[in-house]
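Hi R.,

As promised on Friday, here is the backbone we talked about, encoded as structure tokens. Could you run it through your design pipeline when you get a chance and send me back a sequence?
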């Protein structure tokens, strides 16, 4: 898994002095041989982690050196309305302290806020990859439902991506590219095949010829339970999940796919990655987020066979697919992954969640997953988080369902990305959700990069709304009046399986489509 650094400091591991060690040896032990307390120090009780001896200043937490859980009367977790780990809450990282990073309170949450956006304009190297991003801004993958009848890039697709490449961002992430018809999220979703490969080559060449310094990554996907290749739900499910299944009309008797089917999915992803390389992409992202097929397997605890039950089985498809692509492509072709650090769906149906069935987060398995991805050759991870999703009938009695503001949601994005950046300093993490901050986004994004919370700041809806947003941020010319308004109209187009863009800012292109959807 590699050497991980303690989140509380970057000091070398140390052994306790003799007096302290004696106290620890007589202290009561919790699970995994950890120490549950020390007289007089209930909240700062050092313990010795048995798998990698060192002393950490606080428990409970997840030991970042081995990614195993260190309970002390409870697990480290996010809390409702303040979803950050107790031992991070209100604290600055060492790099933040050293740089005297200012904090800005937005919606009740404090975020690092830089004095300028200079950090966004600096190149970003990716360890182990033959690629350097020209700056620290990414356009995030945004499903568009704007392909042709043969699922190649259409006119709306070219319109969107020309704007993305002209924005000034150093990295652009192509969304949700399928390889099989039953994996499509809509009839006009993008799919690359041998038959339409030339169309993708022309698409990539057009963009790269105009902007050769922009990195272009294709997100490989299988829509899973959200598949609707003919415009109506045709779920492909790997496990029963009552918090999702009511939305896609799946009952407990609906058939789940076999292990052999999942084996074939891996084969199709490996072939698809090769098509992407031939098309001219700089790399691929094996999508493991937002409840799609690879994502739902991460919490398939009740599934039998090689892809369910244990952590190793639940992560098998994602990790082994990445290994297979890396083995085929070798150096010079980036293999990344976009994951949710937590699903925000109560356990046992959500990944990264506390086992008490609440909406609290427990990062133990998330850390193990990222370690496994790193071992498989992944050096670039795009970090997302699940929206609050719940079927009240499957919640413990009295469990409150969080009602998020935009700032609450961004805090979920931010804290997860910061956690992983601290745990894996040899990897690069793209943070998500910055568009939610609107006019505050540039300086908070720069603060996140400068403090080391993220390596790259990712913008999705902002890229739809604001042409040239990245250049404007880096040049100090950002106009808050042009930002994404977080109105959700782009999502209404997506849900209606229409070409997706910003009807508010790009009115000539998308407002007629929205009016058609709304019947106006």
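Update: got your reply. Pasting your designed sequence below so it's all in one thread:
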């Amino acid at each position: 898994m590699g050497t991980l650094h303690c989140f509380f400091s970057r000091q070398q591991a140390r052994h306790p002095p003799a007096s302290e060690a004696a106290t620890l040896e007589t202290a009561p032990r919790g699970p995994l041989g950890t120490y549950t307390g020390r007289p007089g120090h209930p909240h700062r009780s050092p313990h010795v982690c048995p798998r990698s001896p060192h002393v950490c200043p606080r428990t409970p937490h997840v030991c970042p050196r081995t990614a195993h859980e260190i309970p002390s009367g409870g697990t480290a977790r996010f809390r409702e309305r303040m979803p950050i780990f107790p031992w991070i809450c209100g604290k600055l990282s060492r790099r933040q302290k050293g740089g005297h990073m200012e904090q800005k309170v937005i919606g009740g949450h404090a975020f690092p806020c830089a004095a300028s956006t200079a950090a966004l304009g600096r190149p970003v190297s990716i360890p182990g990859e033959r690629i350097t991003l020209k700056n620290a801004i990414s356009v995030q993958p945004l499903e568009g439902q704007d392909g042709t009848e043969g699922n190649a890039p259409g006119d709306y697709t070219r319109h969107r991506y020309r704007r993305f490449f002209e924005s000034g961002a150093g990295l652009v992430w192509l969304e949700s590219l399928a390889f099989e018809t039953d994996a499509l999220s809509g009839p006009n979703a993008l799919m690359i095949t041998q038959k339409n490969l030339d169309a993708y080559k022309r698409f990539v060449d057009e963009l790269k010829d105009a902007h050769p310094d922009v990195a272009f990554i294709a997100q490989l996907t299988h829509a899973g339970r959200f598949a609707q290749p003919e415009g109506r739900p045709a779920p492909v499910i790997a496990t029963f999940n009552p918090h999702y299944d009511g939305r896609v009309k799946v009952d407990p008797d609906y058939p789940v796919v076999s292990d052999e089917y999942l084996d074939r999915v891996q084969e199709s992803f490996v072939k698809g990655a090769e098509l992407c390389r031939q098309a001219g992409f700089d790399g691929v992202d094996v999508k493991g987020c937002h409840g799609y097929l690879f994502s739902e397997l991460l919490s398939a605890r009740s599934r039998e066979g090689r892809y369910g039950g244990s952590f190793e089985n639940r992560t098998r498809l994602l990790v082994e697919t990445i290994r297979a692509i890396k083995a085929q492509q070798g150096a010079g072709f980036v293999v990344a992954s976009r994951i949710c650090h937590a699903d925000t769906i109560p356990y046992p149906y959500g990944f990264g969640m506390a086992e008490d069935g609440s909406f609290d987060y427990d990062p133990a398995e998330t850390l193990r997953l990222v370690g496994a991805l790193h071992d498989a050759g992944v050096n670039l991870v795009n970090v997302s988080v699940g929206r609050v999703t719940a079927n009240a009938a499957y919640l413990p009695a009295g469990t409150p369902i969080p009602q998020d503001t935009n700032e609450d949601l961004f805090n979920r994005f931010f804290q997860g990305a910061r956690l992983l950046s601290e745990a894996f300093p040899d990897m690069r993490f793209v943070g998500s959700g910055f568009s939610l901050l609107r006019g505050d986004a540039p300086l908070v994004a720069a603060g996140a990069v400068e403090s080391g919370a993220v390596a790259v700041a990712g913008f999705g809806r902002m890229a739809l709304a604001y042409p040239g947003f990245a250049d404007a941020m880096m040049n100090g010319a950002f106009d808050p009046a042009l930002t994404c308004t977080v109105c959700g109209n782009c999502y209404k187009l997506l849900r209606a399986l229409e070409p997706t863009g910003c009807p508010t800012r790009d009115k000539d292109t998308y407002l007629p489509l929205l009016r058609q959807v709304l019947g106006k």
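One thing I noticed while checking it: DSSP finds 16 helices and 16 strands in the chain.

Thanks again,
M.
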